[in-house]
């Protein structure tokens, strides 16, 4: 999802993105495959729904023209009430849609509930399916099986003020290790600016630092998950991130409580020289104090020339297991989620497509998008694909860990060990 809508990422993000706990379900295949009737579709509502609605209406018109005995009924549901809506749909086929949009961090819980059908063979047989970005497609998988087609992806990169950099004669960092010294130098020269705006609750800005250091938050062995947030590599990455939350860069008094929205807003309002923001933040930045005075580069990795792995927020399109019109549902999902309409949504809303070839084409024609495409091509990462992530996310395990370190409540070793214990408890519960 995009920043506001990445309740997964989420987007997504943020894009904090949140998940939904799995619900008990008796959802089963209908055993039928009707070729006529009403095809019900659930999509997420937007603050400004008109651009999305126009693109979807065009897809509906095309689909109904191909299938004269089919009527497509699109309902726009509120993100905040999605857990209750999907719980009811999984329990009662009569209230369920045939096709639905949902956040990628909600996927594992929905699959555990038996709500969505396995699309592995469908994607493999879909001509456009081979062009889906492999690392983004992973966000639609659970245990190696595809349950959702990535509809758009939300990625983050490094925004910076070109006027400030020019005035100070500095260049964007070439490695992730260079970020803190550069940010410190900028704040020393311009005390009215944060060197970089990040936050104690900005999990999806912290994760690339952990991944770039060779760490991770969890691993899966023989189908079982366990936390690795307390590994030496993960602690090294966390140390680099929390170094940014110091008085001489981004003071904890102002930044400790910030998530993604608040961190990016500091840059938007002209109070920061850098931030880690998403492709979905473009409109806000263009409307703020940095308009015409900013650029974006991929967040650098551990070695010069490398890119730090980014969290792949975003939304998926899936087919409900209970649908009595599986073929029609699959075909509409592939039309709406295919290259033609992903590009239309990009033009209308700025949603970053999930097809590698389409990404490259857009990146070649739009300098703003290119850093995000480079980030995507370098390989993205994701949260653990397990229903337990919803509990970990709801408990704010990782944000609390970050805040403990930056406030001095606990040293990194103790904070990461405590977080690992909470995560492992969720994984085994």
From TrEMBL:
Residues 1-21 form the signal peptide. One of its GO terms (molecular function) is maltose binding. Keywords: Signal, Transport. Belongs to the bacterial solute-binding protein 1 family. InterPro entries: SBP. This is Carbohydrate ABC transporter substrate-binding protein, CUT1 family. It holds the Pfam family SBP_bac_1. SUPFAM superfamilies: Periplasmic binding protein-like II. It comes from Allokutzneria albata. GO terms for cellular component: ATP-binding cassette (ABC) transporter complex, substrate-binding subunit-containing. One of its GO terms (biological process) is maltose transport.
